[in-house]
């Protein structure tokens, strides 16, 4: 029987370019879709929620390009990791992480997406960043696309709706394999594949009121992403034999609301439709029958080209990955109470407490998910994101007391350890937003996930200085004793 985390377990931290890097107009970078997301200081919380995903084309998009003082573009500045990475990586090394998960910004490598030649300054930035990590023995887990694509690809080609975007993406990924290949240890072509369905602006760059047949367009885009993903795996394996290329979903762990067989069946359907479909295509290499049935029912018709099925079946992923923040319940009953969740509104579970943002905290759900995913695919697994978004207070003496975060980490890591003892082949754990970054949904700095505090507020004001929270010391100790911590 296994006793706990294996030797060499990859304890780590995760961030994404658009939420951390900033420097949107430095180093030859082009404008990307996250750079367009903005909020007006005068908006109410409801307006912010309503407008957050409506950026491309039309009046609001143009407004986002003006320099109006009341309009804020949090993703253009992030935490200015681009200009602070040396001191930040030094802190990461002090924390003791073994792996950094970050994303590469497509618009830094190909500013317009369809450029002939890559932007050398962009490539150099990642060479320097990854070398800095290796200097401290920190491995690199690179996400090739974490939501933001060059704006030009959307304006000129319609983004993922257009098959040409597959070629642009594969060219971009191939450049990364060729130029950064020996500096990256794990690759992830797409962050949270199912985001395309549940947050289409981020996932596949579609805006609902600009699409005559929104749902059909979403699945067409997703098909193009599946093909791009498979062709990327093909290129990666050819250029870098033995490379590890994974597939990821945002895991919506789902329980039946009651033991009524209808609720159990509903849970199976919700799970297939929201979670498994995406990993099934990437890991098993074909569209499952249940989704064909769903397409028939909803009258969804996607265009496939001859050869697509073979591309999918011949190029499957080497490991699975997921983000885990909450669980929810499934039921056929109408009017079930809802609460917020990552990317979706979730059905409430009366047994669980929620975070300040309404996400249901469920450490045991992490063990359940790890067992489910490993049982289903028998591939090594990465917990690519997990963490608690909370409001923190920076004290006058530079300390931040965050026992709630320590408790969250402690309980989730304990369940992860149980899953390893259950037999799950777990590669690593990259805690989400381990240095505070701009939150993705609400675009707030005040929704903090980090064990490192960054002094910036929602409007980007502050010293931008970094401070160690109490959870920094806890996570450091946890890593030192390989997760064997009370
Ligand atoms: C995941 C994303 O869906 O959830 C991250 O991959 C995101 O980019 C994270 O930051 C947490 O969500 P939020 O909205 O609280 O930042």
UniProtKB/TrEMBL annotation:
SUPFAM superfamilies for this protein: (Trans)glycosidases
InterPro entries per UniProt: GH, Glyco_hydro_1
Any single GO CC term annotated in Swiss-Prot or TrEMBL for this entry: cytosol
Record key words, sorted: Glycosidase, Hydrolase
Gene Ontology annotations of biological process type: carbohydrate catabolic process
Keyword Hydrolase belongs to the record: yes
Membrane-traversing stretches: none
Gene Ontology molecular functions: beta-glucosidase activity
Family listed: Belongs to the glycosyl hydrolase 1 family.
Protein name: 6-phospho-beta-glucosidase
Organism: Dielma fastidiosa
